[in-house]
Amino acid sequence: MTSTPVPGADPASAHFFHSLDEGRLDLLVCRQCGTAHLAISVCDVCGSIDFSSEPASGIGIIYSFTRVHIAHHPAFADQLPFCGGIVELAEGPRLFAPLLGEEPISVGAPAIFEWQQIDGRGFAAFRVSAAAPQ
Ligand SMILES: [Zn+2]
Questions:
Q1: Distance 31 CA to ligand 1 centre (A)
Q2: Model pTM above 0.85
Q3: How far does residue 51's CA lie from ligand 1's centre (Å)?
């Protein structure tokens, strides 16, 4: 079995990956303008570098999605096909993650954060409801 590739953190994303390794999805909230970010070192709205760490609600909606049929790494070959998508969190930030649960998936469908652990590292996934968007 091929080991799963893991992302490397940089100064802007270290907070994001550290929270996932500990089983949470945390945000960096700008203390000047209140904008929530996932991974950033300078607020792209107001230029501040002053952030507080706050847990995300874990609630979002499907912004976009795709069904993956070709493994981009041998470690994922036995998982094909799978769905991945961009989830827009209630706080605003968007992230790409595996989508779990009922199909068909639709843009605007609710998605709930579900923590996953692979090879000792934490990852974000989202459980999707097939319910039609309201
Ligand atoms: Zn700001």
A1: 7
A2: yes
A3: 8
CB–CB of 20/115 below 8 Å?
Answer: yes
Smallest Cα–Cα separation from 63: which of 105, 122, 32? 105
Q: What is the 3-state secondary structure (H, E, C) of 28-73?
A: EEECCCCCEECCCCCCCCCCCCCEEEEECCCEEEEEEEEEECCCCC
Q: Is the peptide bond before 81 cis (omega within 30 degrees of 0)?
A: yes
Which residues neighbour ligand 1 (ion) by CB within 5 Å? 30, 32-33, 35, 43, 45-46, 48
All residue ranges of the chain with pLDDT < 50 are: none
Compute the distance from residue 93 Cα to the ligand 1 centre, in Å. 13
Give residue 87 CA to ligand 1 midpoint distance, Å.
Answer: 22
Residue 125 has what pLDDT? 97
**Which distant-in-sequence residues (6+ apart) come within 8 Å of 107 by Cβ?**
62, 63, 64, 65, 133
pLDDT tens digits for 26-55? 999 999 999 999 999 999 999 999 999 999
